[in-house]
Amino acid sequence: MMRLALALLLVVAGVQAFAPARSFRSSRHVAPRMGLDGMIGVGPETGNTVWDPLSLGSVSDTIKGEHSSVMPHAKWLREAEIKHGRAAMLAFVGTMAAATGVVFPGDLGGFHYEPCAWYDGLASAVSTNSFGMAQLFIAIALVEGNAFPGEFWTGGGEREAGDLGFLPFGDAKKNNRDLDEMKISELKNGRLAMIAMAGLFAEHQLPGSVPLIPGV
Q: In 3D, which of 155, 188, 5 has the Cα closest to residue 81?
């Protein structure tokens, strides 16, 4: 197990070594700084106004001078929100599959999949299919290294937060959908999934701490 973990760390380090160098400070090609007021994400739940009780969206503007880049810009925070929301949505689907006993039928590549507890999924996958998990970790490292949003920290960067150029089902126009509507749907579902996963982990670690889902 330790050898596998060490090998994965070496792979990630190697991938990052070949990733293009990016500075945390803005380069010549910089997108205009944009606070929360210009971002998608508000809705009727908050009266169609920005809900930011901790002022995280403007914290980077409160520090001036040579320390102005100490705190992250709202664009960096939005990238983090979208990324964690997507991961949580995938995690929730996997959790529900494990909780209901859904597995891949038959043998896949010589591996036979058995149901396991949702909270033991990662350990089970690594122990039963270490080669497949190594491929997955390498793919994650490649995507993360290529899309590293270093310039977002100061509000720079050419691409929009969350836009990795991956549209397997086509763009919004092709599907006759409003792009802003789809972005809001992704944000809201991601936020809900993050809360759901936090609730599941809290109930597992502290039984009885979350109503309606006892004993998960």
A: 188
